[in-house]
Amino acid sequence: MQTFKNVRPVQILLVEDNPGDVRLTIEALKEAKVLNQLTVVKDGIEALSLLRRQGQYARAARPDLILLDLNLPKKDGREVLAEIKADDNLKHIPVVILTTSQDEQDVLKSYNLHANCYITKPVDLDQFITVVKSIEDFWLGIVVLPKKNGKGNVV
């Protein structure tokens, strides 16, 4: 794979309430070749507050990529996805569903809500790390994403 030099760290938002999955994702991202800044939130309401830069997140960087679990407390990942894709300021951010659900209805609903991809979390530790690295390689090393202005909005 070709390595690209980033002018700034790539901003990744991980929306995940399982501490074990958070740790595994952090480990996998540490091993990646792309400079990244990971922000972790544990529920859907907190994710939307960060994305909308509300309250304590008024100065938060807009993420370049969102890794979203579906089964979240307070506001479920499906609702979060629907709100992201309905918001003109957020809909251009790629959203990767990273969840334990293998339910065909969850897959279909996620794509109907314009998720950029749907990945079932592997149970095996090594496979999980491989999946996270592959996500980062593809979305942050191969894909060309829209440019953002100084405020983090797509230009």
Structure notes:
- With 155 residues, the protein is an alpha/beta fold.
- It has one domain (10-142): 3-Layer(aba) Sandwich (Rossmann fold), CATH 3.40.50.
- Helices cover 37% and strands 16% of the residues.
- It contains five helices and five strands; from the N terminus they run E-H-E-H-E-H-E-H-E-H.
- A five-stranded parallel beta sheet has the order 2-1-3-4-5, sandwiched between helices.
- Helix 3 links the parallel strand 3 and strand 4 (95-99).
- Helix 2 runs parallel beside helix 3 (77-86).
- The longest helix is centred in the last third of the chain and has 18 residues, at 125-142.
- The protein is globular, with a radius of gyration of 15 Å.
- The protein starts with 9 loop residues before the first strand and ends in a 13-residue tail after the last helix.
Brief account:
This protein is an alpha/beta fold and 155 residues long.
Give keywords.
single chain, 155 residues, alpha/beta, Rossmann fold, five-stranded parallel sheet, 5 helices, 5 strands, globular, disordered N terminus
Order of helices and strands: EHEHEHEHEH
Structural class: alpha/beta
Quickly count the domains. 1
Quickly name the level 1 CATH class.
Answer: Alpha Beta
CATH topology: Rossmann fold
Give the overall form: globular
- So, the CATH homologous superfamily? Response regulator
Radius of gyration: 15 Å
Helix content: 25-40%
Q: Strand percentage, roughly?
A: 15-25%
pLDDT averaged residue by residue:
86
As residue ranges, the low-confidence spans are 1-6
Describe the strand arrangement of the main beta sheet, using strand numbers.
2-1-3-4-5
Number of helices: 5
